[in-house]
Known about the structure:
By secondary structure, this protein is mainly beta. The chain has 2 helices and 7 strands; from the N terminus they run E-E-E-E-E-E-E-H-H. Helices cover about 10% and strands about 40% of the residues.
Amino acid sequence: MCLAAPVGLAAERLENGVAVFSALDKVTARIQTLEVPLGETVKFGALKVTPRSCYSRPPTEQPKTTSFVEVDEIQLDGKEKRIFTGWMFAESPGLNAVEHPVFDVWLTQCEKPTKSVAVKGPPPPAGAEGAEGGAAAAPAQEDPGEQPEAPRRRVRR
């Protein structure tokens, strides 16, 4: 029954270390790019933006970039008020937007994956040890045999 599921639902999700936002000051028409490491806070005007997670997909898949974000407003009396907590979607910036009369903040992308997309497997220990004791032609014969394995290591299935 799992074979009937659409392929797009099984796409790999990549964790990233940096969330990238665009921020707009509606009064001055200033747009700024904010690159914020996860768990850290950056200030834009009276807003403090803190991404908690940022996920994307490999370049071979359809884009889907999401981030869980907390946005606080620094009020005139110096107190902070949480004005947004939730998921932002780079492909649909208006879906979950920060509602503020002066500032707009939206997710544009995630950067710096925490793990590599393609992982190279370890070399076969039995074949390498057997080749050292044999003739020089034996490793040359094993190399062509290893080439068909490369397609099995692809990220996309």
